[in-house]
Amino acid sequence: MSGKMSSIMLRALVYAATAITLGVLFFLIGYILVKGVPYLTPSLFALKYTSDNVSMFPAIINTIVMTTLSLLIAVPFGIFTAIYLVEYAKRGNKLVEAIRLTTETLAGIPSIVYGLFGMLFFVTYLGLGYSLIAGSATLSIMILPLVMRTSEEALRAVPDSYREASFGIGAGRLRTVGKIVLPSAVPGILAGVILAIGRIVGETAALIYTAGTVARIPETVFSSTRTLSVHMYLLSSEGFNTDQAYATAVVLLAIVLLINTLSAAIAKKVTKA
Amino acid sequence: MNKEKVKIRNLDLFYGDFQALTKVNMVIPEREITAFIGPSGCGKSTFLKTLNRMNDLVEGCRITGEVLLDGEDIYKGTDVNLLRKRVGMVFQRPNPFPMSIYDNIAYGPRTHGIHSKVKLDEIVERSLRNAAIWDEVKDRLKKSALSISGGQQQRVCIARALAVEPEVLLMDEPTSALDPISTAKIEDLVLELKEDYTIIIVTHNMQQAARVSDNTAFFLLGEVVEFGDTESLFSIPKDKRTEDYITGRFG
To answer: Which of A159, A170, A180 sits opposite B164 (nearest CB)?
Structure first.
């Protein structure tokens, strides 16, 4: 085959792949919008869920609370571990190897296994019951490797010349990390947090076992809750409210989109400063 | 020769099993410019970094011998952060922090406990003036330091180093990433700075060493081949290897 021929083939292949990827995305979004938007009635956003009116409003609130709680637990641990690995640990340290192996293993575990663990440990053993706190504790273990790895990469991407300059002026390690390295790494860390939010918002398996399915706005962290994804799963599996499940999917999509735009804006603002 | 500021005795330096510096002995006088020349990989930058213990950051780096600053061994019980305040450093590539010019300069003083706005303003202005960059940046102190040219960035980095009032200034090939005009500005600046500071400069450029320095050390394969006042080293080198190098026969 001539060089020109293969170049044309390759180009066609690249275009086809792009078209298919975009096509699938648009078809999916379009399908959900067409099926869901007509059923987006105001009553679906009523304060209370009843079997006659399967309002998703409690689930929206639960999703926000669940996400916030899980991030509050996982993000500090993730960032501090990453700081230890990048800034403090010596290369070839046994502990570093152990941490790396652990996180890689954790990242590869299916979410339903986390759910099972959460049920056995948080729900039963610690006696937390099906609750917001058991759910978010489980989810935070699930997203910890993700937050940690992306934070680690973000910290490693900060040029060593910044560190040298800071040390060279007589700043200690703590100040160098806090004032120079961490601020430069914020956009990368945020990217990891966004991915983590995506996983939390989309999670069902791990939550059904740990947070339960009660469709009510939680009173305390020990209340059982359902997030939007769980709500959607239950609606469609019960089979009576498939249309409302699509409507829920529309809201879920909108929320994910909103989070992405918002965090992109935050990242941009932070890098500028 | 002025009073001795830094004295190095029998310094050996190893990276793991590799010996990068062998038996270095040197006396660096106060308020003079001392240049280190030599081919790439000869150990001159490595040696420079032993003078403010930046080599502490390199894993597997080990030294024996003594480095005396005003007669005190900097490797024995010295607070390394205070040492680096006294012995400042300017790097090969301009490396301003990704923050405003003002904050770049104020970073050092803030690190060492100065927080008064009035005082910081004063230090920032004085440092930028001393680094001959004040007039060029005085109207955009709040702008990012990354938005100015490479030559200006390097002078901001010099100002940043001066802001903590060091006694010694180490410069690791400070002009190698700059154009000839910026280089000339930095060289003029270095000559002015020696009124107040002891300056040690590593350079690839022999003309630069000849132009600015009072003393020159020629390094080869981790050893100091020859050290003496610049004029005689360049006009009547004592060692055959120095002569070969400065006449351009290798390196």
So the answer is: A170
